[in-house]
Specification:
about 40% helix
Amino acid sequence: MAISFDFKNNDNRQKLMMFILVVVAAVTFFIVYNYFFRASNVIPLATENVPESLSMVQGGQLDTSVLSSKAFQSLKKNGDYPVEVKDSELGRDNPFISF
């Protein structure tokens, strides 16, 4: 059984438009409420645990076993350090001016 609307009758047209308006208003209210007015779950900042992290560094409790691992020892130097850049290879003084 198909649903049919009689749009020739102004009362049916007004009822349908009012229904669509109410649905759009409800969806808009829901979105605005959820994203702007509802209390959000605030993630604590990482700086709250700084004293603990700082005491670990100052106390000498860093794990340096990575430096003696085979994977770290197998790394090879690529190129010369420090990298020297000639003045002629540098970019323009003001990159935003036109050519």
